[in-house]
Each structure stands twice: as structure tokens, then as C-alpha cells.
Design goal:
Layout: H1 3-21, H2 31-38, H3 53-63, H4 68-92, H5 97-108, H6 112-115, H7 121-142, H8 146-161, H9 166-177, H10 188-210, H11 214-225, H12 232-242, H13 247-259, H14 268-282, H15 295-308, H16 318-333, H17 342-347, H18 349-353, H19 370-373, H20 378-390, E1 398-402, H21 405-414, E2 422-423, E3 440-445, H22 450-457, E4 461-469, E5 481-488, H23 492-511
Parallel strand pairs: 1-2, 1-3
Antiparallel strand pairs: 3-5, 4-5
Helix pairs in contact: 1-4, 1-5, 2-21, 4-5, 4-7, 4-15, 5-15, 5-16, 7-8, 8-10, 9-14, 11-23, 13-15, 20-21
Length: about 500
């Protein structure tokens, strides 16, 4: 086996190993992960929250046993493949062994370790961006039309994973027009490749059309509830943190596009990052949406620095260049990952606050980072709902209705009774079973709504009680109530159907 291959395998093995050590066993899965896993039970060409690719991966995870190991394996795999894509890009650019090691080190010890910790579309999104940029590099180098078709296919797969990849095109198109590569628009193969990409994404577009384009409602809701709190200056500052150990390498690539002769034909990459970041800033995107931009620039920068540090005394700077990402990762390791107990984080909150990690999507600071708080209390909720369900008369005629998708997904993932918890939130609004006449209702209610639930719902049942609640004070779901209503006086399916129709009508009108 070649030494380069051995080293690459070592990096990939280290990637998987690190991902195992970055998550303490005190934490559950994160709320989004439960939703994505539950999509495997409702396969479709689209969802209110994400395109369909994640549900297909979730189905594979389910076939493999649906264990935590496989849930965490796939985002780690996508991170490892991102390292591999950068490695291959460096080889295509003629990089030596030092360039390969430098590039792999920069990608390994970066924000990807945190991103690849969670089972969300983001890990595959970064992989898609990196592979698509690599394909562009190959096309520029070879002028072979097959790379246009491969690129269209990769874009379509990335689109079916997360619509965020559209920003890559937004940044790329004006960049092509500014360089000699604009001649590509005169080539018929480009348009045949675009047609191929459209064919691959059409099923999802048809689903969006048939469902009144819920993606637009989702984007509007996101803008009103989360993106409104995005500070553009913070967005730019956080870009420096994602690959803080690789800044010298990334900025070296910008220099190389202008002054390093072998890279001048790739100058469109310089314009592309500018236009893409401008687009993200204009739409007030979340900072991590842009992470996929950077791995390819690490490839360019690594090759340039390998050439620049290849003779004389400069060779002594090579281990320093490799050591910087590792050394800067050490303090990040202590704060950026849920590898410390909630109690430890609360006691050392200043370390987290100064990095902005305690600020949630509501724009306020809390005791734990939002992702960490979203990984607590779920097993407690599922166990309590499970126990309550088993104690009910006619339990098979029980509806479990939750306030949010995290609650419903966690119950469905952890429960041993194969329950079908639902919610009017996110994709669950389409997953109600209205063929069954329900006699009982288990209502999972967010803490701020607990006080009014008995008053609002008990008139429709013979018996009602607040049976339990989430007691983990560090959980975002702390105080969530579990109500039990038995002996339905009415057919509650009609009320549920009315609520569903009202929400869908609102969504449709909101999109118009």
C-alpha cells in the first residue's frame, strides 16, 4: 500500500475516532435528529422541513437497526468523505505529501467536527459543495464535457439534500462571467447537463407544487423567527472561527489565484467566494450555511504553501503550518462540543458566553448552548409517555399529540410500544392517522402553555389530569407537561381535521 494511501486512511480513521469522543453519554440525540429519523417511516419526495435525501438515509439507518451508532456514523462518514474530496483536489493540483497532510489536517481540525456530530442535512451539504467545486476544478483542468454531467448530477443530489446549495450557483455564475470561462455558456453540453439536473430534481419540484410550495412558507417562517436575529457582522466574524486554524492556508489561496501562475486559470474561485458570501449576507443567512465554501480553498492554499515552503530554511515552517490547526483546536475542543456535563458548562459559562455559544435563535443568552440543551430530556419524556400509555384503558385508541416535532420524534424513537406521536408542527401535520376513533389523548405541552391546557381540553373528556412533566432543568424542554385525557365525549378527529385544514390554508395563503 502506498504511503499516501496509508496516511489518508489514518486521517479518515482519526476522523471517526474523534467524532466518538466529542459527545458525552449524558446527552441524547438533538431535536432535529428525531424528526429526520422519523421521516424514514413516511417516505416521500419532499417534506415541509427538508428535501427527501435525508429520509432515504434514515431508512437505511432503520434497516441497520436504528441504533445511535448508525445515527452518528453517517454524518461522520460525510465528514470523512469531505477530507477525501479535498485530498483528491490537492492531488489534481499537483500537491506533494506535505500539501496533502496540511489540507487533511486543516479540514479535520475544523468546525466540521461539530457539524458532523449531528444527524442533519448540513454534513452532506458541505460534502456536496466540496465535491461540486472539485468537479469544477476538474472541468477547468481537462475541458472534458463529462464533468458537466457529473456536476449536474452532484448538484441535483445536493439539492435533494438541502436547498442551500443554490447559493453555490448564485456565487458561481457571475464569477464565470467575469473570467475567460464565460465561453462555457456557448457549449451545448452545458445545457444538456442542466437538463439532466432538472430531470433529477423534478420529482421534488412536483411535490413542492402539489403541496403549494411549503418551502416558501418555511423560508418566511425562518426569516421571521430566526434570521431576523442574525447580525451580519457576527456572520462575518464567525466565518473566521469555522476554520480558525486554517486561515493562513485559506488566505494563501486568495493570493495564489492572482500571483501564482499555475492557479491563475482558477481565478473564478476567488470571485465565487466573494459573491457567495455577499448573497448569504443579503439574505441574512445563518453563519454555518457558508461552511461548505471553504474546504476547496484549503486544497488550493495547501498546494501553494507546499510550493512556497519547499526549499531552504522555509522547510522548517512546514511542521509549524501543520501544527497550527491542531494547536488552535485544543482550546476549541474544551468548549465547542457536548463533551462536558451540563453542570460543568454552567459553572464555566463565561468561557462559552464570550464565544457567543450561549446565544440561541431567539437572540438571548441561556445557561447552555442551544444544541446542547436540545440534547437533554428526550429519553425522560419518552419513558414517561410510555409508562402513561401502558396504564390507559383502551390504549390502542390513544392519540399522542405533541407541541413540537422534537417531542413527537423522540417519543417515536425511544418508545418500546411503537407509538405514533404526532404534532401540528413541521412534517408531522401530514402524518396523522384519522382512520381511528380515539378515546384517549396524551397531550405533550410546552412549559409556557401548561397552565391553560386543562381548561381548554378537559371539557371534551370525562377525565383529565396533568400526569407528569420533564424535570431535567438543563433541558430546553424543562417543564414540558404530559397531560392525560380519557373518555372522549366527542369524535376528536373532527377537531384535529379542522386544525390541520386551518394550518394548511394559512400556509397556502402565506405563500401567495
Amino acid at each position: 500500500m502506498k504511503s499516501k494511501t496509508t496516511i489518508l486512511i489514518g486521517f479518515i480513521g482519526l476522523k471517526f475516532l474523534l467524532q466518538c469522543f466529542l459527545l458525552s453519554s449524558e446527552y441524547d440525540l438533538q431535536r432535529d435528529e428525531y424528526l429526520h429519523l422519523d421521516q424514514a417511516n413516511h417516505l416521500a419526495w419532499g417534506y415541509l422541513s427538508v428535501p427527501p435525501l435525508t429520509s432515504w438515509i434514515s431508512y437505511i439507518i432503520q434497516l441497520l437497526g436504528n441504533s445511535i451508532f448508525w445515527v452518528k456514523f453517517f454524518p461522520a462518514l460525510f465528514g470523512a468523505l469531505t477530507i477525501y474530496a479535498v485530498w483528491k483536489a490537492i492531488e489534481e493540483l499537483g500537491g506533494n505529501l506535505f500539501a496533502l497532510i496540511l489540507g487533511a489536517t486543516c479540514v479535520l481540525f475544523s468546525a466540521l467536527l461539530r457539524l458532523n456530530m449531528l444527524y442533519q442535512p448540513n454534513s452532506f451539504d458541505v460534502l456536496s459543495w466540496t465535491v461540486l467545486y472539485f468537479i469544477l476544478l476538474k472541468y477547468i483542468k481537462t475541458d472534458n464535457a463529462k464533468w458537466l454531467y457529473i456536476g449536474a448530477t452532484v448538484f441535483a443530489i445536493g439539492f435533494l439534500n438541502k436547498y442551500n446549495i443554490v447559493f453555490l450557483l448564485i456565487g458561481l455564475l457571475p464569477s464565470i462571467l467575469l473570467t475567460e470561462h464565460r465561453k462555457i455558456f456557448l457549449k451545448p453540453n452545458l445545457y444538456f447537463a442542466i437538463l439532466l439536473g432538472l430531470v433529477l430534481i423534478i420529482p421534488n419540484l412536483v411535490w413542492q407544487y402539489n403541496n403549494n410550495f411549503p418551502v416558501f412558507h418555511h423560508l418566511k417562517e425562518l426569516a421571521q423567527t430566526q434570521l431576523v436575529n442574525v447580525n451580519r457582522l457576527d456572520f462575518l466574524k464567525n466565518q473566521l472561527l469555522f476554520f480558525v486554524g486554517s486561515l493562513i492556508v485559506i488566505f494563501s489561496s486568495f493570493y495564489a489565484f492572482h500571483f501564482y501562475k499555475p492557479f491563475q486559470k482558477y481565478r473564478l474561485f476567488f470571485f465565487s467566494i466573494i459573491f457567495t458570501l455577499i448573497a448569504f449576507l443579503y439574505f441574512k443567512a445563518k453563519d454555518y450555511y457558508a461552511i461548505g465554501i471553504y474546504p476547496i480553498y484549503i486544497a488550493f492554499g495547501s498546494v501553494f504553501l507546499a510550493d512556497a515552503l519547499n526549499d531552504g530554511w522555509k522547510k522548517f515552517l512546514q511542521p509549524i503550518a501543520i501544527g497550527i490547526p491542531l494547536l488552535l483546536f485544543i482550546p476549541i475542543y474544551n468548549v465547542a462540543f457536548p463533551n462536558k456535563s451540563p453542570e460543568y458548562i454552567i459553572q464555566h459559562s463565561d468561557n462559552y458566553k464570550k464565544l457567543g455559544m450561549l446565544r440561541w435563535e431567539d437572540g438571548k443568552d441561556h445557561s447552555l448552548p442551544q444544541d446542547f440543551a436540545d440534547m437533554l430530556g428526550w429519553q425522560e419524556l419518552a419513558q414517561k409517555v410510555d409508562s402513561i400509555y401502558l396504564s390507559l384503558p383502551n390504549k390502542s385508541y390513544t392519540l399522542i399529540l405533541c407541541d413540537n416535532y422534537g417531542q413527537a420524534g423522540a417519543i417515536n424513537y425511544y418508545t418500546k410500544q411503537k407509538l405514533n406521536a404526532v404534532s401540528f408542527n413541521a412534517d408531522y401535520i401530514d402524518w396523522f392517522d384519522l382512520t381511528k376513533k380515539y378515546e384517549n389523548l396524551i397531550r405533550v405541552k410546552e412549559a409556557e402553555e401548561v397552565s391553560v391546557e386543562l381548561q381548554e381540553t378537559s371539557p371534551f373528556f370525562l377525565n383529565s389530569t396533568l400526569a407528569d412533566s420533564i424535570t431535567n432543568q438543563n433541558a430546553r424542554e424543562f417543564g414540558t407537561g404530559i397531560f392525560v385525557f380519557t373518555g372522549a365525549k366527542i369524535d376528536i378527529r373532527k377537531r384535529i381535521k379542522g386544525e390541520i385544514d386551518e394550518k394548511k390554508t394559512y400556509r397556502q395563503h402565506h405563500n401567495e
